[in-house]
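Section handout 9: paired folding examples.
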Amino acid sequence: MRGSTLRAFRAATLDAMHDRGERTRAPVLVLGVEHSGTSILYNMIARHPSTTWFSQYSTRAGDVSGSRTTPPWRWVDRAGRRFAHHDWRKMVSGLRARVAPRPTEGWEIWSEYLERDAPAAERAAALSTMVDTFCTRVHRPVFVGKSPRLLRKLDVLCRMEPTPKGVHIVRDGRAVAVSLRKRLAAGDPDEEAWPKVAEYWVNSLERVRSFQASVDVLVVRYEDLCTDVHGTLTRVFRHMGLAAPAAVLDSLPLQLKSRNRPLAPDLAPAIVDRVADLQARHLDEFGYDPGPELHRAHR
């Protein structure tokens, strides 16, 4: 489908929503390094009644090439979003938790639009049309998306119309390094692994920084979300142009237990110093003490 056809289809989609008094607003992208609280924040935002998002049923709705469309699952998706609220926690159990539509990363859909062999502008137009279609399908004006891998395609995302808004959740880089050590550098010796994961956090922050030149990004800290869930969510909803419904806030805890951990106490001082050198400027920028806390376990 060429760019002009996509624009025509998108215009028709928007007109249909306008006829019902609705309007698609700027999509909102939850950005952040893996293990920074992106999933919990995404799940909480998605409880707002004005938002729509990819669910576990979205790939069965014909939005991905080669996937089989299953009409009953589309009905379950639409009805479930209206009558059943997903759990905000990452790990849930029980039949209702599995059946009720819940926010997912939907990477198969993102890949379909972001990684196709087409110019960036055409991919962005197709993505905008897809977002409008999702909003129209469930009659909700704000699309919310999340995947740490979106950081690799910011050049396409910033071309969408309307231009997306971002919510960037940042977590202390030392805690992120501890969490990602085994996944990103499982077979590497400590002297290589810890600088690798420390630098990964820094590079991810820099990607979002480049995105901020063209996109309105709100920065929230994982630690602040843990300390004040309702206050942080109110700021996020305001950034999205939405009110913070009492029913949504009342369904969420006031605080979360922070899972931050210091670097292992048996690390060689040279490794700790290397991590400090890589992350110090960015830790300071986001309000983390780059000195004493890093070395607390190494005295």
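Moving on to protein 2 of 2.
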Amino acid sequence: MSLKRKLTISALTLLLAILGVCGWIWQRHGVYGFNVLLRHGGTYWIDLNADDPKLPPSMRLALKNPPPAVVPGAFAWKEIDEGFEVAELPVIAHDGEVDRILLNRIDPTRFRFVVRNAADGTRGLDEWERALPKAVLIVNGSYYDAKGKPDTPFITEGEILGPRSYDAKAGAFVAGKNTAGIRDLSQQGWQEAFAGAANAMVSYPLLIGDDGQTRVPVKSRWLANRTFVGQDRLGRIVIGTTKEAFFSLERLAEFLQNTPLELTVALNLDGGPIACQSVRLNDFHRKLYARWEAQVNGNQVRLLRWRFPDATLAMPVVLTVERQH
């Protein structure tokens, strides 16, 4: 066989392999998959020990057996606009601060809440900011599927997205004209909870249910940056994001129950490196890029990484806050 023919066959084989990979990505992930690869090269897990220095200090501390008990530190609300307050709640262990929750407390009669989806994978926190100049708060929302579409029932500005058949037992965030709140779906179906809503999304688990108890179903040592949305005794919406990845879901629920936030109900949103937060209101600006997520089994830790470490991850589902029209 001539050299030219060998090169031709090799090139065709390589082309077919590339086309096969592209076809697999398209079938499994659609356009979202290609944009994720372009954005950060895709994600993967690395295996570490619980004391590995590649883990941030807060994670290594949380992986001690048992993890240290924590209490809320001193904090104060600051009103940056009528009906919109911000604060930072320190998470204190015996050796000092181990995490910090970036808080926003919002009057739903003065601000509107919108859930949004960018299923093509082109929008991280920076891109959402540019696309939504009127959004005063942007955080990640609920869960999404392999193609970047909502993985739970979802309404965005009256448009229904996500699965139509879904067995929801946790909670939902529901917003309409001058109203917003959390619905405990142990007492009603999500279809009933969504009735009349302009924006809504199912998520899980309920960190605090209507009865004041946590609904986190199982104990887990899975650690990640966390975002939650809650409602306090005066009906204000409280949205918080952790700066670090100290909390498992169970321990976050317990911590929130013991804070002075007076939450009557709180719903977990998706977590990990997508749990970012942006606040842009008057002269106040806050921006957090999340980075951490780890599966933990005994002393073995699997840390989520991506091939372009300086890139930020896409946020296909977000919850945004805007001034009332």
